[in-house]
């Protein structure tokens, strides 16, 4: 495990050993199959998503959220190898067939385990599961991790202790599929503000927030000809706030903004972190 | 009260104007209904509320405070000064003059005073808008899709409105100089009176008549300009907001025919040989949209309700970074193609004859639709709840499902989703590896 943690960028270590230590999980993460074999049902399903499962950067967000759930004493399961893409990128690319194929197969598995509540750290999975699965037979209570963490903080199931981000200037980038698509603007901000930081808004935020450039299946293709990449435009706006940390709430936004920061050669001064990472390092 | 030649001319003008207006509105209605059905009649109470707030109440206009405020002035002018037009029409029909002045008395004086002040405010607002479009050169009014007719159209509307208001104020200003003015005195009229002070009493009556006729004939002409102009939004904004999407912006429609087919594919008990040989009417329907008739009629209604303000395009991340995509152009293209189809139908005795053209490719290019990030910024920005994203997605569906012509990188992504359950080439068996790392 420690080998992997050495991949952590030096700038992260600057903030806290806690950020690294926080990823060490106290209990083993169990799959729904394992829960079922024990004859138990966890409170919530953690839908990890493709980025959270495979992308090295996003895996750290996944672990942070798993760790947060453990610290809050919430029992959760993952689908593990039974999880598949929700079908979101196929749908936004125009392939409704593939989307529905994926969706209905996932729904069979989810319904098979009698899933009632789902949390995910990916706004794309969140949107698809919450809005597009019900009509295909999959009706669940779906929350984004910002909403769950906000709830846990408000109910004191989570308590902020480490003050590693206290007073730091942080700006928050609204993911389109969380913000405009589903109207979730306040929960992630409440979570960040719980860290006692100086939250500064970008020129365009909330309903007017600028996309990172990854949505609508753009993540998987080269952009069309233009005079600039969208993530650069957005990163410039984030950097203009003078923040040390750009808080993200989506693994794809995270990649786009991280690339943008690198492009601007600011990776030594500015870090892109998911709200789950911020919270988990401060518990 | 006298009935003479002028009443006949007035009635003739009124009915001609109404006749042609109705005829052209009917054509637009037909063009809208060429498209697929759209089931947007649920939750009527919510829909009325949205229409009241967004269309009547202009709630989304003020997001941009300067444009929003001046727009509300013109809008209020349009709604309220039209009350006076009612009197003008009745005067025209009955051969009376200022019919309501006697019965309403002081209330009439107050109302006309208010309308005159509003008319001045409308002129100011129109001048500000002309300034914004022609002098300030605000970026969204300078985009390629606005060059030519759309740019002129916007200026014509503003100029016509100024002319109409000047005519209205001239009526009062001429009367203010008369020995026995039929009503008043009114504040603005009195201030403007010196303009006509050089005229004799006969001259004043002629000036008043010229202004009166210019005002009402101008209104009737403007009414008939509407169906050919973006200014038609003053009517269609209302139904457009009523039929708006009520679900979260992130919920894209579930394709019902695909659903049936996928359900059949995944049903272990389904016997493909006993499956109904798909209802002939439905199976001829395309996946996605290639042309206007493949869209839903709400999409086309959206297009006719668009006033080309370009707030969508100004907010579009693709457009801001120099890509060809402009949500406003998407809407203008849908309307222009619907108009073209309408003309073909008119020319062929009510039947559409394939002209070898289509919305996709001949109006909207593939480069445009693939530049979209589906971020919903355009949808959020629209003051009348137009949804360009829904159209872009239907065009993508056609390209992907009917033609299998997605960009190569997206085909790779979709192959991965299909085979590995993820958009990248990772084995599904490795999905939970993070637990052990």
Automatic annotation (TrEMBL), chain A:
InterPro entries: Cys_rich_dom (IPR004017), HdrC_iron-sulfur_subunit (IPR051460). It comes from the Bacteria. Pfam families: CCG. One of its GO terms (cellular component) is plasma membrane. One of its GO terms (molecular function) is metal ion binding. Keywords: 4Fe-4S, Iron, Iron-sulfur, Metal-binding, Oxidoreductase. Residues 45-130, 170-257 form the Cysteine-rich domain. This is Cysteine-rich protein. It comes from Schleiferia thermophila.
UniProtKB/TrEMBL annotation, chain B:
GO terms for molecular function: 4 iron, 4 sulfur cluster binding; metal ion binding; oxidoreductase activity. Keywords: 4Fe-4S, Iron, Iron-sulfur, Membrane, Metal-binding, Oxidoreductase, Transmembrane, Transmembrane helix. The chain crosses the membrane at residues 6-22, 61-86, 106-132, 153-171, 183-199, 211-228. It holds the Pfam family Fer4_9. It comes from the Bacteria. The keyword 4Fe-4S applies. Residues 297-328, 361-394 form the 4Fe-4S ferredoxin-type domain. The keyword Transmembrane applies. InterPro entries: 4Fe4S_Fe-S-bd (IPR017896), 4Fe4S_Fe_S_CS (IPR017900), HdrC_iron-sulfur_subunit (IPR051460), Helical_ferredxn (IPR009051), NarG-like_sf (IPR036197). This is 4Fe-4S dicluster protein. The lineage of its organism: Bacteria, Pseudomonadati, Bacteroidota, Flavobacteriia, Flavobacteriales.
